[in-house]
Specification:
There is one protein chain. The chain is an alpha+beta fold. The protein has six domains: 31-124, PAS domain (Beta-Lactamase, 2-Layer Sandwich); 130-237, Beta-Lactamase (2-Layer Sandwich), CATH 3.30.450.20; 260-417, Beta-Lactamase (2-Layer Sandwich); 426-523, 2-Layer Sandwich (Beta-Lactamase), CATH 3.30.450.20; 528-593; 600-760, 2-Layer Sandwich (Heat Shock Protein 90), CATH 3.30.565.10. The protein contains 18 helices and 30 strands. The strands form seven sheets. A six-stranded antiparallel beta sheet has the order 12-11-16-15-13-14. A five-stranded antiparallel beta sheet has the order 2-1-5-4-3, covered by helices on one side. A five-stranded antiparallel beta sheet has the order 7-6-10-9-8. Helix 7 runs antiparallel to helix 8 (281-296), helix 7 runs parallel beside helix 10 (390-425) and helix 15 packs parallel to helix 17 (641-655).
């Protein structure tokens, strides 16, 4: 059913709501950098002004001394209104150091220590952009466009484009008269002329679509003067309303129905809805039910809610009702009626011929389901002992839409309260800041981390918390490049001077035309200290064991030389076992160093050539030919890169039993793939998934099982990866490394390194 509503009233309501939202925004706790807050005493002298350079130059001076002479009378009038207890908003021209600026302001009277003063916010008025016009039209629930004084369309919304069946991109620069029926064009021109001088009433006209179909519309026009000199036109399709009016006109004499009466009821319902703005959903439902009983003359009205798959009354107005006949299986509303002979009829559409033909009704029941997010939550059940006409059913359906909206708002409000509660109770600091570091909002956990009080947080510059200001620059560079930063670890300084290490994740967001940063932060100082303690004791333990092993090997070596051959062999095995233990300690040290060393440019070809030369004799002794295709590439790595290729090449020579070892490369964008391929016995398919795991060893291996695990960890520390490629014979390892260069994507995330969490932050 078409939504009937006075468009002018809808526009005024929308403007009022937008005004309230804007006021809340500008009078909020954290003003934007474009807004100036001020206070003036009852004598007209400036008490305070913020967000202005050289603010002290304004304090104690009459505010009128900064107002342009032509606007002083108007500014004085605003001041008197405000001192008299009114909230005012307007525009004035000010003059500061000879420069004239147009500002807009909101001001309210306040009491301080028994004295009245004026407080408000102001900002320089900017010219409205085409984007802002688009945003404004997108708020409107009806077809709308903005034209110049000649009717040339500057901007329109999607609803207008749908109405005339034109792509929105092709509407701009066309003239509104291209779409208005010729018979209605003279009236439109006359309305344009009148609206230049005063507000005009809406009127009906016909708009012509791309297919030359005439559609009846109700048109409203508003002249936007000042800097604009434009017309705002709002159009509402009234095809269904015209058809209904025609039917009602035909039945007017027979039924005694007045169209004006329907409009009066509709206006009454819209007025009630406006009055209930901000009320609870229970209060809204109660007033709607009262309105249906009192205004439409029904015997009773009940709001039924779903509970355990059945309907139970939440609100009831009017006479005590009989048992509800409405079924939860009904998708649309139903009219339930009984004729004089007692036969009960269920009609799913009130416009069906069977409803129209029945003239004698002893009872009538209308049930309209209520949906929230496509889920049925209840129904509005209305009963009467007489027959009601179509317009009453239409009004009930319209009233139901207000109830649905009330429940939706209640659900949204509940969700917002839940999120607010979660944010306030979160142990992690949650914040919003501008790109230049001004704090907009923060939860209690954030304030606790930095030792701040709520009042101190207003507009504070978070850059001051950084011990090293360069890290703030790196943080901003990363977030601007990628849109977010994850687990950024940095050293901060609290308000009391205490240094703390925090882990932070943040992302870019938009607020109007400005970019802001939203994020979460956690104090991990205790974790880092525990991590450092563990590293220290591990290092100390390994150092002591290594040294004691070396001493033991020295003594055993001396004993070995003086023992018979069979006993010397036993000592030799002991020496080998201790040597393996020391080798294991060296491997663990390398694993630790994979996250300790910064990455730098390394010529990978020279590293591989050095490793090949190192194992040249071993390869010759195994009758293996090493075929190397020179590699010219600079990769992001450190000196541990040599261990990667030493391990792979040594394994191929010692364990593959092949005759050829090939080493070559392929470039893929900012990545280079280096292949180490032998034609030996290969690796069984079932073991390919296991070889990179910590401690895995092949059959008969005397190693520690950390070789390929170490290789994998080093490669991943460089931001690369290592895989085994399927090969018909032998084994082919592929080492993928990122090239070093301006366009290469850096694996290093800005900030300190954290072994405690096992990754680089």
């Amino acid at each position: 059913m078409e939504k009937e509503r006075d468009i002018r009233e809808a526009i005024e309501e929308l403007k009022q709501k937008m005004s309230e939202i804007e006021e809340l925004k500008t009078m909020g706790a954290f003003p934007s950098k474009e807004e100036i807050s001020f206070s003036i005493d009852k004598k007209g002298n400036i008490i305070s002004v913020s967000n202005v350079a050289d603010a002290h130059l304004f304090i104690g001076k009459p505010f009128l001394s900064f107002v342009d002479e032509d606007d002083r009378k108007k500014a004085f009038s605003y001041f008197i209104q405000c001192i008299s207890g009114e909230r005012v908003e307007g525009e004035v021209t000010i003059r500061i150091e000879g420069e004239r600026k147009q500002i807009e302001f909101i001001a309210s009277p306040t009491q301080k220590e028994g004295e009245i003063e004026v407080r408000g916010v102001a900002r320089e008025k900017k010219k409205t952009t085409l984007k802002e016009f688009n945003e404004f039209l997108s708020f409107l629930p009806e077809a709308a466009c903005i034209t110049d004084l000649l009717g040339n369309i500057i901007v329109s919304n999607e609803i207008f484009a749908d109405l005339i069946h034109y792509p929105i991109s092709k509407i701009r620069n066309k003239n509104i008269f291209d779409f208005i029926d010729e018979r209605d064009s003279p009236l439109l021109r006359e309305q344009m002329r009148k609206s230049l001088e005063k507000n005009i009433e809406g009127w009906e006209a016909y708009i012509v679509t791309r297919e030359e179909i005439k559609i009846p519309i109700e048109m409203n026009m508003k002249y936007m003067g000042g800097e604009f000199n434009l017309f705002l036109l709002i159009m509402k399709e009234i095809t269904k309303r015209k058809a209904k009016e025609k039917i009602l006109e035909e039945e007017k004499e027979e039924e005694g129905i007045s169209i004006s009466e329907v409009k009066t009821k509709l206006y009454s319902l819209s007025k009630l809805n406006k009055k209930l703005y901000g009320a609870s959903h229970e209060e809204i439902c109660k007033h709607i039910c009262k309105w249906i009983v009192k205004r439409l003359g029904f015997d009773s009205c009940s709001l039924l809610m779903v509970e355990n798959e059945s309907l139970v009354p939440l609100v009831h107005e009017g006479k005590k009702r009989e048992k509800n006949r409405y079924s939860m299986d009904e998708e649309e509303y139903a009219v339930v009626s009984a004729v004089k002979n007692g036969e009960e009829i269920l009609i799913s559409d009130f416009s069906e011929s069977s409803y129209k033909k029945e003239n004698e009704w002893s009872e009538m029941q209308v049930c309209i389901p209520i949906f929230i997010n496509n889920k049925k939550i209840g129904a509005l059940d209305v009963q009467s002992g007489k027959r009601h006409m179509d317009e009453d059913i239409f009004l009930i359906r319209y009233a139901t839409s207000f109830i649905e909206k009330a429940f939706q708002m209640a659900e949204i409000s509940s969700s917002l309260k839940t999120y607010e509660r979660i944010i306030k109770k979160s142990v992690e600091g949650i914040y919003r800041v501008t790109m230049d570091g001004k704090l907009l909002e923060a939860n209690p956990a954030f304030l606790k981390i930095f030792g701040l009080k709520s009042k101190e947080a207003k507009g504070i510059d978070v850059t001051d918390f950084y011990v090293n200001k360069e890290e703030r620059k790196k943080f901003l560079s990363l977030i601007e490049k990628k849109g977010m930063v994850k687990d950024f670890e940095v050293l901060y300084k609290r308000k009391d001077g205490k240094k703390i290490i925090c882990k932070e994740s943040a992302w870019l967001a938009e607020e109007g035309d400005e970019k802001i940063i939203e994020g979460m932060i956690e104090d991990i100082s205790e974790h880092v200290k525990a991590r450092q303690d563990v590293q220290f004791y591990n290092s100390l333990l390994r150092h002591d064991i290594y040294n004691k092993n070396e001493v033991a090997m020295g003594y055993l070596g001396l004993i070995k030389n003086s023992l018979p051959e069979n006993q010397a062999e036993i000592v030799e095995k002991a020496l080998l076992a201790i040597a393996e233990g020391n080798k294991l300690i060296e491997t663990v040290k390398k694993l630790e160093r994979t996250t300790e060393r910064e990455l730098k440019p390394i010529e990978v070809g020279k590293v591989i050539e050095k490793v090949i030369e190192k194992y040249e004799e071993d390869a010759r002794s195994k009758d293996m030919e090493v075929v190397y295709t020179p590699i010219e590439a600079t990769v992001k790595a450190n000196d541990l890169i040599e261990d990667i290729f030493s391990n792979l090449i040594r394994n191929a020579i010692e364990h593959s039993y092949g005759s050829t070892l090939e080493i070559f490369s392929k470039k893929k964008g900012d990545v280079i793939d280096i292949y180490v391929k032998d034609n030996g016995i290969g690796i069984p398919e079932e073991n390919k998934e296991k070889i990179f795991k910590q401690g895995w060893k092949g059959k008969g291996s005397k190693g520690s099982g950390l070789g390929l695990y170490l290789v994998k960890k080093i490669v991943e520390g460089f931001g690369g990866n290592i895989t085994i490629e399927n090969s018909k014979e032998g084994t082919c390892f592929v080492v993928s490394l990122k090239k070093f260069g301006e366009n290469a994507i850096s694996h290093n995330v800005v900030g300190r390194e954290s072994e405690f969490f096992g990754v680089r932050w």
